[in-house]
Amino acid sequence: MKTTGVMICGHGSRSQGAVREFANLAEQIQPLLPEWPVEYGYLEFANPVIRDGLDALRNRGCNQILAVPGMLFAAMHVKNDIPSVLNTYAGAHGIDVFYGRELGIDPKLLEASRDRIFQAMEPLERNGSQVPLTETCLIVIGRGCSDPDANSNVTKLARLLWEGTGFGWCEVGYSGVTFPLVKPCLEHALKLGYRRIVVFPYFLFSGILIDRIYGFTDLVAAAHPEVEFVKAGYLGDHPNVAQVFAERAREILSGHTAMNCSMCKYRSKVLGFESEVGSPQVSHHHHVEGQGASAPGSNVEACLLCDTFCTGACRLDASCEHHHDHDQSHVHHHHPPYPHATHPLGPHSVRKLLQDSR
After folding, report:
1. Sign of the torsion angle spanned by Cα atoms 344, 334, 201, 312
2. What is the pTM of this model?
């Protein structure tokens, strides 16, 4: 007899706030799936790890697990790292683990995005600001990764928001790994001459990358007081988010779990990434599994603009020596080299942007 449970597989964060938000989300999902127990775990940088969540479900008698990746788009974590952990666990314990698809571009998430954007503009309207949407530029900031298919989905999401709301213009930037990064994206948008710029991070939770996005927004805004800058909230605890997670779990049993494989760099010769076709499906995160914000004895937050551990005392105007970018701080991951790592608006420019901000 099959006893089913649901496993929400998060990435994990060095930020205590982000870890708490993910745990709260799991609590919101449970009432939406009353027939199944729901557990959660993280790939890296936080506890419980995914294996712990799977143990909890197995201890509750579950021998069929519906695993949902807790990420907006499918890149290396969704395609390689999480499946590797799940497959290893399933084989070791003789249980069935069925894997769902990423949250992706969903009408409910578009509605949640719209809500966050317009909620951020409400205080300006109440204070008498009369800048119309047609004179406002929307900036959508995605996570950024080494998978061009996932990055392109941020652009698609931005276009759907732009056309659905009527902003005067829309630009897309990324918090890291790819290009353009936040600061050059904002500086480019300023050249378009719009009176207001709304920065919307298309992220599920808070954390060091949200701090980075808002930090660079503050830097650019301080240099251009003639333009209204608005920092919209991330998706966070919007009720639509939990609903989409629940839908992804139910889809697994109905068979509607297919990801977009036509432009997957591991299956197709995507322009610029041809060497990664057929790469093995392995996890790159064993060395940081369970470490970070929720590790025993940890009481630190992460640096505002870099991906390293520190006391949290350094901020935009501080003399922080931790200038590692994603590639440098993950030297043991054995990631394939990103073909545009030296792009002037891309990942290696983070260090220069940090130095210029001081």
Report:
1. negative
2. 0.81
